[in-house]
Design brief:
Radius of gyration: 25 Å
Strand content: under 5%
Structural class: mainly alpha
Strand order of the largest sheet: 4-3-5-7-6
Amino acid sequence: MTIRPNSWLVPFALAVIIAAYLIILFYRGFNDPDEGRYSEIPREMVASGNWMEMRMLGFRYYEKPPLAYWLVAPAIKIFGAHDWSARIPLLFSGLIGFFILAVAAVRKFGARHGLSSVVVMASMVGFIAGNGLLMTDSFLMVLFSATCLCFYSAFENNVAPRDHLQFLMLGVVLAVLGFLTKGAVAIVLPAGIVFLWLLWEKRLALLRPSSIGLAVLFGALLILPVLWLIERHNPGFTRHFIYEEHIARFQGTRATQLHPEPFWFFLLVLPLLLLPWTLFLFRAVRNIWRQKAFAHDSFSRFLFVWAAVVICFFSASTGKLMSYILPALPPLGLLIGRWGLSEEKADGSKWDKWLWNTGVAGFVIVTLTVVVAWNLSYFHFRPEKIYPITGLSVIALLPAGAALLYFILSKSGNVFGKLLLFNSGIMLTAALLLSPLAGKDFNVLAHINSSYVYKSLARHLQPEDRIIVFWSYRPALPFYTQRFYTPYEEENELFYGMKMEPALPGDLNSAADVRKFCAQSSGRVFAIVEPQDLKKKFLPLNLSYRATSLPRDPDTIIYELIRPENN
């Protein structure tokens, strides 16, 4: 099904999708810990005036290289420390990524199929969320895609020697930028993708020792001075980053190993990231098989290898997060769009029609799932698991409902345009449900967003006031309050930083520590406690406290601790 430029459906649907993306970017609180972490570190850079040291809550933080922080810090410096300002770099990153992938798709698939494929890719949940969440993986997805496409252009058939060298060197520059964003995967995986693709094409001879040696030398000349500069301002970074964050994390031997998941974890995650186009994957596979696409389409072969390498590599790793396979989404989206949707009538068979209808059914299933989830939340079904949502948020269901109704009743022959409009309605509904419209307590079944509470606390604080966070890790809190909190029995990712600089005040570990902390504080001391810890862990500490008028949510209660002399 191809795009018809003269139809109002496609441009209108794209405008709605863009609106949904902008809402996700600029009308939403931070999701902890990821967005809190990658906004708080650049905020501390700006606040201290030292953009070379990587710190969080004042402690050295060496889990990632600094490029993502350097991209975010200027926006905070110019516009101030706001959740929306910290995401401004994502807007430019997403636009650049979309443009690069669109140019490649149109160039290799042609305008008719290329535009369809890139629109499908850009309107997937994973692609929109990946470019809307403030994480290193978001920037990596764009840099990784650009690296892979440059390497493809360097080694595609009949490339001129000059173009080969230019694309190869540009790919090296992009890979180095990816390394400075996330780590070695930005270099190793694209290199592996090119190797396996050329092996499949029986063109390994193109990997000439001279050009590869030059690329390695060029990459080393770019990386080594920057690593030296980072190490100079962050002693111990190189050793920690290379061993702990690469070798030990992959093997599962890291001291604070996080996110252990089974090897098949990403097989469960991928269908969610490909929504609502997920079920068109089956039609794409059939069309690729029947039309022998891999036999004559080198670009499709490259996209397949690209996706497979990323998924297989991270599946082999011990620690897994959904965001790790974001670099696999662009090739999968282009393949689904090209072979699952832009081929309107592959053979006209009943089987093909059934596959098409199955793909469409995915849109209906997603819409009904959202409606059911809204009702479960609004009517307080299992309130301990599903957070309450506001009645006003029923407005958010209108875009998806209207799009579904139009899809059913419209007699337009532009089926792709109707599907895209349906998709845009789903995306706008999802964006609105992620926004404050859904209410301060609604976190889409995930206990990760207490921004409303943090902002209220920030307005209430005086300069001398202090904060203790009990048994939880909340990097978004210091961003909103613009001051450090003191953790209680919760080192988490701060463990290494505390160990590196033991002279700095660390975490509290006993009720006596808390009482001493309160006695030494000149202002008020606020305690942040999770409701599930209140009876079993907080009350047994026998601390003196009183309730506050500050708001709470299902994850956060704020008390004021009373100094011993005031008891």
